[in-house]
Each structure stands twice: as C-alpha cells, then as structure tokens.
Amino acid sequence: MKNLVILGGGYGGMRVLLRLLPNQLPEDVQITLIDKNPYHCLKTEYYALAAGTISDHHIRVSFPEHPRLHSIFGEVTSVDLENKQVLLNDHEPVQFDDLIIGLGCVDKYHNVPGADEFTYSIQSIDQSRETYQVLNNLKADATVGIVGAGLSGVELASELRESRKDLNIKLFDRSKHILSSFPERLSSYVEKWFTEHGVEIISEANITKVEPNIVYNHDQPFECDAIVWTAGIQPNKVVRDLPVEKDNQGRVVLTVQHFIPSHEDVFVVGDCASLPHAPSAQLAEAQAEQIVQVLLKKWNNEPLPESFPPFKLKGVLGSLGKKQGFGLVNDRPLMGRVPRLLKSGVLWMYKYHNG
What is its EC number (predicted)? Predict the structure, then answer.
C-alpha cells in the first residue's frame, strides 16, 4: 500500500483530500494527513476571530472521513527527503511514498528587534485566539497598534473598530497609501472609511523596534496597550530548513508539475511554493487541483502533464466590518456593499461544499 502523506490541512491540503476522496483514490493508496488541529481552519477569517466578531466554531470545517484516510494530529519538526520520512514531536517518524507539503506561512518580522517577542499575531488559529483574548480584555479607551496595512491589517482594523468602538486604533504602514498593491482609487476609498470611523493611519512608517507596549516608528515611541503584527509572511520553518532551491521570498522552487526538481515524490502547495502570484487560499486550491492530476497520472503509470494552463484567479475580496467591503474582481475595483456581500457568499459556499 502506497502512502500519500499530506502535511497541513489548509486550503491546498483540504482541496487534495476532497478531490481524491471518496472515489478517485486508487485501491493501493492510503492517505496520512498530519496537522496540528483536528479540523480545517478558515484562515481568511482569522482577523474576525481575533477581533471578536465571530466565534471559533464559525471558522472550523471537519476533515473528510474515509477508511483509507488516517490522521495524525501533531507538530511536524522536519522532513527527511533522502529517507522519505516526516519527523514529528511526540510521534514516531512517518514514512511516505508521495508527500505534499502544505504547512503554510508564519509572520516575517524583517529583523525588527522585539517584534516577534512583543507583538500578537493572526497567522494561526491558536495565535488568533490569544490575540482575541488580549484585544477583548483591554480596558475602555485603550490603544491598539496594528503594524502592516495589507489585506490582513486592514480587515483586522475595520473589524476591531466594529467590535470595540471605544478603542483607539493606529494602523502603521510603510507605504504612502494602505493596500499599496491595489488601485489607488480603491486604497483611497478604504482610507476614507478609516478616517470616518476614527482609525488613525500612520503612513510611510518605518518600525525600528518594539518593546513591551511600545512600537517605535522612525525611532519615535508610540505607546500601545496591545500591538498586532500583520507586516509580512514567510514559509514555515520546516520548509525554510529544507536543503532545496528557494526563491528570494524563501519559497520552494518547483517544476511545472509542482514537485521539487530533485525529489519527484515531494510536492509543495500553497504559501510555501514559488508561484507567479501572491500567496492566497484561492491560489493554493488551484495549485492543489493540478497536483491531484499529476498524482493520478503517476499512480496510473501514465506520462505526467507537460504543462498546465495559467491559474485563473477570480480576484480578491476584503471586508470593512460587516456592511462594507472592497475588492478587485477581473481587474475591476469594487467598493461598498456589493464586495462585502460577495465575500460573505463565497465563505458560505466554501463551508457548504467543504463541510
């Protein structure tokens, strides 16, 4: 019996499971899923969990069940590519015939002293729970600093404003405009929303260090009762430690078929894979679809696909609380109620089809 091991039940790993199960998994193949949690987590909604506007239960989806799907709930410490085994804390090594690494990303602190020690995160469900406890236990009129005004920082700031109207929220961003990767018209719309709702934007920031309850911008101290870091990501440490070629973001360079060039049995999916798009749940799912095609060809002893059509990504949707939103769909900026409704609909459909 061949063993397909999937590291991480995120968006990529979950899509692989749902494509292979229940009917496409060959009789001579079993799947071993290794994840910290006994459920799939909707990472795109961690900002709302941290802000306290949704419950933990709303962002959990059960993994599928199948006689040849075995789950191990623990922490991966390393991958031994040469001996084809996965090493874990508190568990014996797991041998694999094929491996899919989908361990996701962690915060990138850009060598800012104190940032990893004195800030909170929304990169994992455990960290988001901790951030929720801190933010929602703050006294009235407390100050929250959010470092980074990309999609995560913007959604957290807006959701926190709805959750805690009494808080003073400062949003630090290194660019001239927040959401710098989006069209300026859209950035201006979001900035106006923040101005109207009393969120202070500190543009062209340069965070030089962080101390307990103090964030230094251009060496000027800003006292905060809590500081949340949303200023960049990097691959999981297990992936960073792999002795393989990486791009300048630390993501693993892959073949067209999504496996490591020197290890044709090891695939990388999602945030840790070097792909021609910014990491996203949508991208991880699209890549997972292609990995499943490769695996099925391989298991049937058929030639592997020599190429794939380019990924067709539908766009990006973001929320500004529960009533307003923004997005970029087919390169068209969307602002107001419609993108917020679209995002809610996409989330509902995902949970309906995957739960």
Answer: 1.6.5.-
SS3 201: strand
Q: Which residue in this structure is represented by tokens 């994992």?
A: 124
Within its chain, how far is the Cα of 212 from the centroid?
26
CATH architecture of the domain covering 2-36+74-106+233-299: 3-Layer(bba) Sandwich (3.50)
* Domains 2-36+74-106+233-299 and 109-231 agree in fold: yes
User: Is the pTM above the cut of 0.85?
Assistant: yes
Indicate the SS3 state at residue 3. strand
- Omega of the bond leading into 38 within 30 degrees of 0 (cis): no
* Pairwise CA distance, residues 59 & 117, whole Å: 27
pLDDT in tens, 114-138: 999 999 999 999 999 999 999 999 9
Contact indicator for 338, 345 with CB cutoff of 8 Å? no
- The CATH class of 109-231 is alpha beta
Q: List, for residues 167-190, the tens digit of each pLDDT value.
A: 999 999 999 999 998 999 999 999
Name which of 97, 73, 67 is nearest 9 in CA terms.
73
d(CA 158, CA 113): 27
